[in-house]
Write a structure and sequence with these properties.
Helix content: 10-25%
Radius of gyration: 17 Å
Number of strands: 4
Length: 115
């Protein structure tokens, strides 16, 4: 006779665990491999949950815990050895389904919030 026990645990995110969405435009990516190398460094930073660097859109997207210390200066320092730069930094609370790419052509023309 086998006894099967099923345990269902529901996790409800608390306000202090609300993820942050960090975005920036990365200038100078030359190949998908180059983007992957940059992304590996950013994804390995403390309190980063997910990171994506895209060569075609020049967009960087990071999901991070609120404690994550990444700001534009830190990102620039981390990616500088790869010969690229970052601009148009944006950090806000992650709202599922509310993602919009930053336009590398116009993102510098309108100030973005740095929270």
């Amino acid at each position: 006779m086998a006894l099967v026990v099923v345990c269902i645990v529901a996790f409800r995110p608390s306000s202090h665990c609300q993820l942050q969405q960090i975005q920036a435009v990365i200038v100078g990516i030359v190949s998908p491999q180059h983007a992957a190398e940059i992304n590996a460094v950013l994804a390995a930073q403390p309190d980063v949950v997910m990171s994506r660097t895209d060569m075609h859109t020049k967009n960087l997207l990071i999901h991070a815990l609120p404690e994550c210390a990444l700001d534009l200066a830190a990102i620039k320092t981390l990616i500088q050895p790869f010969g690229v730069s970052a601009r148009c930094f944006k950090r806000e609370r992650l709202v599922p389904g509310h993602f919009k790419h930053l336009d590398p052509q116009t993102c510098g023309s309108v100030p973005t919030l740095n929270r």
